[in-house]
Amino acid sequence: MKSILRSLFSPILIIFEKGDDAYAYKPLNRKILIFMGFIFAGLTFLVLKFTPEGAGFGAVIPVIVFGLVALVTLVVGFLGNERAVSKIWGVR
Q1: What is the pTM of this model?
Q2: Where are the beta strands (DSSP E) in 7-89?
Q3: φ, ψ for residue 68 (rounded to 5)?
Q4: How many C-beta atoms lie closer than 10 Å to residue 36's C-beta?
């Protein structure tokens, strides 16, 4: 199942997994990344829930931004390798 999901989300994972420079990985970084992903997913649903009807395009922008951040952090947190997690944190 993980290999199928990795191939499905490969455009996101390739960005963070490429390179051969040194990195420093800590397992806690992955846990925090997944936690942050769930926080951004929750923010996405809260903005969707509390946005008044007919609010216009301005209400869609936070949903898109929070949703994309949640997607990237959850994909890298669950499916990415150690290099991808370290690259998101900027740890070298």
Answers
A1: 0.86
A2: none
A3: -70, -40
A4: 16
